[in-house]
């Protein structure tokens, strides 16, 4: 195979490194920011202990990530351990939660046995364009009951072959 033909292939970690070099959030940063957005949307703020509980991590790990996200301009964090979102954090958090919801809705509609876990595993690797295509497909299924039932019937027949 010629080198030019293979130039786009990388390991999963290789693509992550490229994204980080371009200033993108890491998958972990996205998980924290999405969870903080969820909590702050309800109560206006959260605390390190709540974040660590929700993500099943040690408080020290949560603190480190919160400091990173604060340094990047996504969060406001005070000495009383109150965490709030900046405007940048609200915008990013809203987009992350929207992406999560679209992917989980799609996986549920195609019969995923564990849509939450699968969403968590794949959401960070999909492009915005792919997520928007999934959103359009979700809307198509919602707007046309025949399309969804046709899909389900096709899947049922496949299982019985």
Describe this structure in words.
- The chain is mainly alpha-helical and 161 residues long.
- The protein has 2 domains: 12-91, Arc Repressor Mutant, subunit A; 94-159, Iron dependent repressor, metal binding and dimerisation domain (Diphtheria Toxin Repressor, domain 2, Orthogonal Bundle).
- The chain is 68% helix and 6% strand.
- It has helices spanning 12-21, 27-43, 48-55, 59-71, 87-109, 115-122, 128-143, 145-159; strands at 46-47, 75-77, 82-85.
- Strands 1-3-2 form a 3-stranded antiparallel β-sheet.
- Strand 2 and strand 3 form a beta hairpin.
- Helix 2 packs across helix 5, helix 5 crosses helix 6 and helix 5 crosses helix 7 (128-143).
- The two termini are 38 Å apart.
- The relative contact order is 0.09.
- The mean pLDDT is 88.
Brief overview, please?
This protein is mainly alpha-helical and 161 residues long. It contains 8 helices and 3 strands; from the N terminus they run ααβααββαααα.
Write the layout of secondary structure elements.
Blueprint: H1 12-21, H2 27-43, E1 46-47, H3 48-55, H4 59-71, E2 75-77, E3 82-85, H5 87-109, H6 115-122, H7 128-143, H8 145-159
Antiparallel strand pairs: 1-3, 2-3
Helix pairs in contact: 2-4, 2-5, 3-4, 5-6, 5-7, 7-8
